[in-house]
Amino acid sequence: MSSLAGLDSSHFRLPGTHVPGFPVLPLRGSRHRSTSVSPGLEERHSLLRDLNHFFLFPVRKRRATLDVPGVGARVMEVTACGDPVQSRFLRRLLKLRVMAFPINRLRRLRRTETLRALVRETRLTPESFVYPLFICPGTGIRKEVRSMPGVFNVSVDEAVKEVRETRALGVLSVILFGLPEKKDEVATGAWEEDGIVQRAARAIKREVRDVLVMGDVCLCEYMSHGHCGIVKAAPQALGAPKGTKKTMAISARGPAEKKKAIEEMAESIARAAIQPEYEIVNDASLELLARTSVSLARSGVDIIAPSDMMDGRVGAIRAALDQVGFENTPILSYAAKFSSGFYGPFREAADSAPQFGDRRSYQMDPANIREAMREIELDVEEGADMIMVKPAMPYLDVIAAARERFDLPLAAYQVSGEYAMIEAAARNQWIDRERVMMESLLCIRRAGASIILTYYAKEAAKLLA
Ligand code: PBG
Q: Using one digit for the tens of pLDDT, what is the confidence trace for 93-118?
């Protein structure tokens, strides 16, 4: 069936049979001559394009209307054709199934939920979710995070209960973040044997069967300054002693002098903003990250997930794990982690906000997708077993590009800000909470992530059951 049905070659006037007085748009005939009888999509399109040209000019007096989908309705004038090459082209043209309305109606398969379920391309499963847990000191503690309703800081005993519940819902994995008792300049809480996450991991692995415990490896939660690596004063900061400009402004006498002093002060602040007075030291931080990873593996953590964004950390962690016999512990690398405003609520949950500056010198610029591919590539070379893109929803293009390019299991982190936005809008009754929750997860999956870290893991699993 075709909207060209009922027409045969006698109805067409082909290019080349020129009628004086009318412009003839040439067909790329030579290409059509050599192609096979059953046209592919590409050729189909080219035929339709030519058809469009072809029907642009009137010939003789007989008129007919032809609907060519994707080309538009054309009034054409037709005539017979004797040329064998052109006839062959026409025969093929007439065989062409024009795939469009009214023959094709995509709504046919959308009519009922059973039909929709049959043809659904993407599905969510609880096993692909990873549930984040924030472990705090104490016992019996469940403290709700202000900016993340439904998410709690939990003590080790409560964490075990959470994991039991999560596991019962079919979610197989959790990822642990820690709120240590004390913070310092070398992130002791991250790597000490009795660290908060180490304790939680031991308890969870002891109490719950068949659960995967991931350990987020980062230093920000354990550093007094809240950065993900070791901080040292940058060389350019070793200039004039601080406070001189300020003193000048205060002690300045006349208004002109005062204005000048204030201007100078503003300038020095601007300069300091452009050239930070501190540096997050890369290579020295690797040692702490490696030490943390080994300590986590020793406490029973199944998968090491570095999120710090120091260069070379996957390689350093891999080497350190292998050295002490953890060559079978996989690394899920937060490979393309962007410097994002969407981490805001997490920093409240994990008490990990940087005390000065921001994370732009180590996390990625949100503008860069090519650089994200390089980040992933390097992590793969260094031995990452799985890769992650984070955040998820604003970075679906990065997820899709990573899926296209790399064959490792791909994870995406639906971060705290994504969760908080949905929660806030739902509380205002501006959106349907469950619907948006499931849609957001489905779309992250559709973009190409097979593993999703999400604060909705438990609730989504309940809805999928
Ligand atoms: C630690 C880390 C962060 C997140 C995961 N690991 C915060 C950050 O980088 O500032 C964010 C997770 C979320 O927002 O849900 N570096």
A: 555 555 678 888 999 999 999 999 99
63 neighbors 76 (Cβ within 8 angstroms) = yes
Q: Does 75 score more than 60 pLDDT?
A: no
Per-residue confidence (pLDDT) for residue 258, from 0 to 100: 74
Give the residue extent of every domain in the chain. 9-109, 126-229+285-464, 235-275
| Residue 182 designated active-site | no
Mean pLDDT of the chain: 82
Atom of ligand 1 nearest to the CA of 132: 15
**What value, to the nearest 5°, has the Cα angle with vertex 124 and ends 118 and 125?**
110
Buried b or exposed e, range 102-133, using 16+ CB within 10 angstroms: eeeeeeeeeeeeeeeeeeeeeebebebbbbbb
| Residue 314 CA, ligand 1 centroid: distance in Å | 17
Most confident residue range from 65-69, 243-247, 353-357? 353-357
- Please compute the mean of the pLDDT values over residues 276-284 and round it to a whole number: 90
Which entry of 95, 183, 246, 337 is annotated as an active-site residue? Answer: 337
Phi/psi at 221 (5° precision): -70, -20
* Short-list 150, 100, 104, 56, CA closest to 458: 150
Evaluate: CB of 456 within 6 angstroms of ligand 1. Answer: no
Q: Which residues are within 8 A (CB) of 304 and not within 5 positions of it... i.e. 6 or more apart?
A: 214, 215, 217, 293, 296, 297, 317, 321, 329, 330, 331, 332
Element housing 399 (H / E): helix 396-405
CB 74 within 8 A of CB 80: no
Q: Please say if the pLDDT value at position 11 is more than 50.
A: no
Work out which ligand 1 atom sits closest to the CA atom of 308: 16
Which of 61-75, 193-207, 243-257 tops mean pLDDT? 193-207
Taking CA atoms only, the protein residue closest to ligand 1 atom 8 is: 343
CATH architecture, domain defined by 126-229+285-464: Alpha-Beta Barrel (3.20)
Residue 256's pLDDT is what? 79
By CB atoms closer than 10 A (0-12, 13-18, 19+), residue 341 is exposed
User: What CA–CA distance (Å, rounded) separates 305 from 84?
Assistant: 68
- Model pLDDT, residue 255: 76
Ligand 1 and 415: CB distance under 6 A: yes
Other Cβ atoms closer than 10 A to 241: 5
- pLDDT of residue 386 exceeding 50: yes
Active-site residue, 390 included: yes
Q: For 453, which DSSP code?
A: E
Nearest alpha carbon, ligand 1 atom 10: 343
pTM, to two decimals: 0.75
**Greatest Cα pair distance in the chain:** 102
CA-to-CA distance for 385 and 173, rounded, in angstroms?
Answer: 16
